[in-house]
User: What shape does this take?
Amino acid sequence: MNVPTIFHTRPTTLRRSLTLLGQDVDVVARPSSYTWHHGDGTAQTTSSPGRPYPAKDVVHRYREPGSRLTPSVDTTYTVRYRVGGGGWTDLGATLTAPGPSTALDVDEAAPVLVKP
Assistant: This one.
């Protein structure tokens, strides 16, 4: 078995205020799910952004060694807005932002017993 590779990202809530047709509009987009593309043709979707080691919230076991894999994460946001300081309304659809890829080499480690 290969050692699990830990994936994580830093979730960011996006907030914007703008004027549209003379009305003040506030928009908030919160991460709701993450689709992890492992770079080996597999993917998984989680509601967690993962955490760095030693946490193992989001992991993937590569079955084969490989070089120049390009894992990435797409973040899906739920969006709500309000007009003129009124009540918040859900957009009713999600928005997905693809993340940049990073280079990853996967090596295979084999245990070896040695005589002291």
User: Anything to note?
Assistant: The CA atoms of residues 2 and 63 lie 7 Å apart. The chain has a mean pLDDT of 93. DSSP finds no helices and nine strands in the chain.
